[in-house]
């Protein structure tokens, strides 16, 4: 029994020694190596998390920087765009001024040439006429001052104007019909107003009545008008220039406006009141007049404190005096009679 226990004890001790010597160390080494790997993995994961956070922060900063850069680029592009537009506008304005200055210089030169030509023609005709009548030659140098004076007076005289209204009417009617068709009445009023103002200019009037060709007159006229004249307005100027009718442009405007009023059945009404009329009062007067006159009414209101009260209405031949001053005057006349 004791020998058996002793043998078992020795066997167990040898087993333990064998395990401690050959089995346990590799297991412990494997466990320690595994623990080390796990620890290294945790450290690597923590480092990766930190790197990820850092990368995200860097990416956010880069996005902000990119947005800021893009904003700056857009702002610079917009500024440059505005600068280019301003430069183009200034260049266009300068070019327009240059063209106008050149046109004015050409007008002045043509006007001077026309004056000189007309002066020579008048002088020649006057001398020839005198020679014909008197049947003798007169001293041209002695008569130069007299002839120059006569020529200057002739240059200041305009062409006969009695037929301008008749001349203007067909042009106004053609322009009006075209404007109605294109629904551009207001645009044509602006064009004709501007054209009439140009035609009334003394230098332009001299140019129209001078020896300049109709084509050149139309070109100068349209160059001065610039953007005020569209293609159809320029065509009207060319046609009138070719027919020698540009001098009738102011009358064309008048006839055009009359046709426009007739189309709109509008009448201008002058309303004079002792104090400023309210919007309701203006509307009431306008409605009553439109009902009575059967036309659209355009009120031209003004204030005259001497009326004391009430209003005076003038619509063509119609005059309605409902002012306090008017009633007092009528009462005074009645008492005197």
Automatic annotation (TrEMBL):
Keywords, A to Z, come to: ATP synthesis, Cell inner membrane, Cell membrane, CF(0), CF(1), Coiled coil, Hydrogen ion transport, Hydrolase, Ion transport, Membrane, Multifunctional enzyme, Transmembrane, Transmembrane helix, Transport
Domain of life of the organism encoding this protein:
Bacteria
Q: Which residues cross the membrane?
A: none
Q: Name one GO molecular function term.
A: proton-transporting ATPase activity, rotational mechanism
A GO cellular component annotation in the UniProt record: plasma membrane
InterPro entries linked: ATP_synth_B-like_membr_sf, ATP_synth_b/b'su_bac/chlpt, ATP_synth_F0_bsu_bac, ATP_synth_OSCP/delta_N_sf, ATP_synthase_B_chain, ATPase_OSCP/d_CS, ATPase_OSCP/dsu
PANTHER family tied to this protein: ATP SYNTHASE SUBUNIT B, ATP SYNTHASE SUBUNIT B', CHLOROPLASTIC
What's the name of the protein?
Multifunctional fusion protein
Organism of provenance: Vibrio maritimus
Source organism phylogeny: Bacteria, Pseudomonadati, Pseudomonadota, Gammaproteobacteria, Vibrionales
């Amino acid at each position: 029994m004791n020998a058996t226990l002793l043998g078992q004890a020795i066997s167990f001790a040898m087993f333990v020694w064998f395990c401690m010597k050959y089995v346990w160390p590799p297991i412990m080494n494997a466990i320690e190596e595994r623990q080390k790997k796990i620890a290294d993995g945790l450290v690597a994961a923590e480092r990766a998390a930190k790197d990820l956070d850092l990368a995200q922060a860097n990416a956010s900063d880069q996005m902000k920087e990119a947005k800021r850069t893009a904003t700056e680029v857009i702002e610079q592009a917009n500024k440059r765009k505005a600068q280019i537009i301003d430069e183009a506008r200034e260049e266009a304005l300068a070019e327009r001024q240059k063209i106008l200055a050149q046109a004015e210089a050409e007008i002045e030169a043509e006007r001077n040439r026309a004056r000189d030509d007309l002066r020579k023609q008048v002088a020649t005709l006057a001398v020839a006429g005198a020679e014909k009548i008197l049947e003798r030659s007169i001293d041209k140098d002695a008569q130069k001052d007299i002839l120059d004076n006569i020529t200057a007076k002739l240059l200041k005289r305009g062409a006969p104007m009695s037929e301008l209204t008749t001349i203007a009417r067909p042009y106004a009617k053609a322009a009006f019909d075209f404007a109605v068709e294109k629904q551009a009445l207001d645009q044509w009023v602006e064009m004709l107003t501007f054209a009439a103002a140009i035609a009334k200019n003394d230098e332009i009037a001299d140019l129209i009545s001078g020896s300049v060709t109709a084509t050149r007159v139309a070109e100068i006229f349209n160059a001065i008008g610039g953007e005020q004249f569209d293609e159809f307005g320029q065509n009207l100027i060319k046609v009138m220039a070719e027919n020698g009718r540009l001098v009738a442009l102011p009358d064309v405007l008048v006839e055009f406006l009359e046709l426009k009023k007739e189309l709109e059945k509008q009448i201008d009404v002058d309303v004079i009141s002792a104090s400023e009329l309210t919007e309701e009062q203006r509307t009431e007067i306008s409605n009553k007049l439109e009902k009575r006159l059967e036309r659209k009414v355009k009120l031209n209101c003004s204030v005259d404190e001497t009326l004391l009260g009430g209003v005076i209405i003038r619509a063509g031949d119609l005059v309605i005096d409902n002012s306090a001053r008017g009633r007092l005057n009528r009462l005074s006349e009645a008492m005197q009679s």
